[in-house]
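Task: sequence design from structure.
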């Protein structure tokens, strides 16, 4: 896809994102977001915050909420929502692999449906490690490569199409394994069905990780 076409598709993707996800949010994804984010405390950094769907699910009392989002069409939707959320939120236009955030400065990093899309997961996780304060953790909720090899093979076949229609999203990433390979310890990991999502975008993995 040419750069111009990709940018145009990025604008469409941002415009339809909330509608596209509405059924999934209602039928389980929203509850999983709330459950994950209930553990957020202190200074929180969210990667690839998109249109700001998580804003409704953060607990009260956060010290700061930094919302990093590299795509301008997403950031345009995120800013007014962040401002209206009542949370101490600030939008940073930045990719996960180059965060304008000091070393050891946040208590939690949040990633929901993002590590499927970042071009370099290892670089993003390197940044997560760098910005986390001692005792801090990564909270993640991601759709991942299916543990059944036959279904994973179907995901491999579908992936080139997925990358185009879902603006860079990969359905076949073993994200849990990639987090572990980056030297994080995984905690409370649970596999969940991604209700109302296509069978090729299954399952979800949620949990936390410490460097
Ligand atoms: C499927 S959307 C998920 C949005 C949001 N996190 C959510 O849970 O609804 C993927 C998001 O990742 C963002 N993204 C794309 N490339 C990225 C990168 N290199 N670093 C961080 N985020 C990125 C996209 O702009 C988009 O907002």
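Answer:
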């Amino acid at each position: 896809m040419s750069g111009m076409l990709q940018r145009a598709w990025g604008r469409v993707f941002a415009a339809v994102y909330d509608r596209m996800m509405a059924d999934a949010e209602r039928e389980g994804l929203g509850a999983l977001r709330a459950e994950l984010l209930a553990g957020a405390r202190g200074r929180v950094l969210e990667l690839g915050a998109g249109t700001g769907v998580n804003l409704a699910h953060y607990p009260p009392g956060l010290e700061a909420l930094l919302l990093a989002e590299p795509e301008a069409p997403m950031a345009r939707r995120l800013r007014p929502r962040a401002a209206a959320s009542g949370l101490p939120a600030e939008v940073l236009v930045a990719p996960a692999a180059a965060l304008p955030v000091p070393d050891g400065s946040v208590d939690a990093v949040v990633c929901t449906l993002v590590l499927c899309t970042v071009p370099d997961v290892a670089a993003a996780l390197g940044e997560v490690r760098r910005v986390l304060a001692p005792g801090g953790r990564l909270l993640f909720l991601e759709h991942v490569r299916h543990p059944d090899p036959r279904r994973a093979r179907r995901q491999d076949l579908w992936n080139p199409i997925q990358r185009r229609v879902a603006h860079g999203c990969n359905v076949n990433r073993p994200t849990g394994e990639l987090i572990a390979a980056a030297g994080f310890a995984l905690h409370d990991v649970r596999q969940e069905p991604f209700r109302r999502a296509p069978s090729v975008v299954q399952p979800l993995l949620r949990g936390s990780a410490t460097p």
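Residues 193 and 203 are 5 Å apart (CA to CA).
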